[in-house]
Amino acid sequence: MKRPSSEHSTGRSDVSTPVVESSAAQESGISRRDFIHGVALAGMGVMVPSATLAEAVEAASSATPYPPALMGLRGNHDGAWETAHQLARAGQRSFGPVSASTESLYDLIVVGAGISGLAAAYFYCQKHPDARVLLLDNHDDFGGHAKRNEFTVGGRTVLGYGGSQTLESPGGYPQVVKSLLKDIGVEADDFYPAYDDGFYQRHDLAGGIFFNEKDWGTSSLIRLDVGGLGDYMPLADAGLSAEKAVSAMPLSPTARLQLLRVLTETRDCMPDVPMDEKRDYLYTITYRRFLERHLGVTEPEVFRVLQDLASDTGMGIENALAGSAIFYSVLPGRGATGLPADTTEYEPYIHHFPDGNASIARLLVSHLIPAVSTAKDMHDVVGASFDYTRLDDASADVRLRLSSTVVNVRHRGSPESAEAVDVTYVRDGESKTVEAKKVILACYHAMIPSICPELPETQREAMASQVKMPILYTNVALNNWRAWKELGVGAFVAPGAYHVNAMLDFPVSLGNYQYAQNPDQPVIVHMERFPHGREPGLSKRDRLRAGRYELLSTPYADIEHSIRAQLGEALGPGGFDGDRDIAGITVNRWAHGYSYYYDELEEDIYDEWDDPRYPHVKARQPFGRIAMANSDADANAMLEAAVEQGYRAVLELV
Fold first, then answer.
1. Phi then psi dihedrals of residue 359, to 5 deg
2. Which is the CATH superfamily of the domain at 82-142+391-466+598-653?
3. Rounded CA separation 119/233 (Å)
4. Cβ–Cβ < 8 Å for 65, 39
5. What is the tens place of the pLDDT at every residue in 354-413?
6. pLDDT beyond 80 at 168
7. What per-residue confidence (pLDDT) applies to 93?
8. Which of 24, 153, 318, 402 has the fewest CB atoms inside 10 Å of its own CB, making it the most exposed?
């Protein structure tokens, strides 16, 4: 869950409100009538009964699929990654006879149709309006991590984001990014009326923390913001003092006292660290070490509560830097640092489309291939239809070819003198080669050494070192959100649970799309998991690799079971019934998620982000007629980085 790197403290009130407690709800069994792994039952207001499952599968597979409406396991979905793993992990180089393409020479081929690849194509076409451009992507949908999840519930369309969530602080974007957004019809100021910043307060929806019976011995959902939720969501005040909330937690008396100190301490617990060195110091120790050394935490229960709440740092508290956990993830303890209150004014965290940055990807595609959609700006793109059959139109100057995994990119001759580059890809089990005057590799850097082995060894090593952070973004479509209203919770963290948090999605109404106005209307619940290896002594990269393995080896049925169990137990006291209230589930699995970021505890940090000693700088160097894009090229998972790197790659080729 990306959020501003702010230092806002979370205020708490001493007004007492009830604590929700209950026995664990009965776990629902896996219902095949509700969810089919990777199969869309799009357009249906309710899921089909099991008796008609075979007919539904046959109908869905025979129709032209609309990827945003596909449910089950998405993101790095089955069918998108197998060929790449055969190449990169098994070393397979041959994928059958290669057919020479009948397509004429392209001016540019872009490998990867994520935000960076789409932006690169857009910038190239600006400079060369008559250019013939081909984009290739291994997924069945474009946008990279900027994926749209679409559900039809009771005749209404509800939208969620399957990855890239927001435009964060767009007022500070580089001019090239601002210009692109303006060109495709995105005005940052238009998000202010679109985002209902009074929604959570109006419905008295506070932040919460959920303890499940399996891990904690009792089931409790308590109105208390422990995980920094209120720093980026305008939640209602919990109305419950930290003392009362902690006293209701299923912890030992000693653990309660220690956690309460973490939550409320305002004395400087780092008096030996000079004021002008405190912030830097917090980036030299882990959050767990900070708790132990400066707040005297010794109880395992306290560590268990906070263990995974650093969430999208991708690490547990024994590896997450204290500075990142406190200032970025907004975990408790800032009051004990002795640092003054942060008075910086930040842009509000409101720049969301209902489908996240998928709308940016859709606008870019609409401008590159006008036949696909009539969408022209941010107000009509959300509700606009998209004709996927027109993406790869032979008569168009720009073509986008999905489900096409590139397995080889090689200059036709010496890189110094070659006049063309051959690009071989596998689609529907067949290998085909297309050629272009120039190529931009806007795919994962870690994959490039396998598909472009002619690159210099030092560059390939730098690319291979950029291990991306695995992420699981789950969207659950509900027929209603009465239980959330009844319990007075709009978002909660869940220590020990499979998904570390759950929230009613951001209240955004844009164009002809309207967010739920009352608890009887359908809504999306967004849930997240950031898996990582937990064995002692692992490097950060190995922890991320272990998390990737976990995601790829966990069956969808297990994930669905955890979703139903977690929501059923947490929301059951409010009247929630998963069999009745869940209308659809889409699990977005990103085994290769956020771009790798450097860790001060394990790596050298240089004064300039473009320092040539950094792996991402070594990795993105142009090679002959090939340039590199993607957010990996900036070691930064944000949208603006992806766009900037697409622009840089184009400049290197023109």
1. -65, -35
2. FAD/NAD(P)-binding domain (3.50.50.60)
3. 29
4. no
5. 999 999 999 999 999 999 999 999 999 999 999 999 999 999 999 999 999 999 999 999
6. yes
7. 87
8. 318
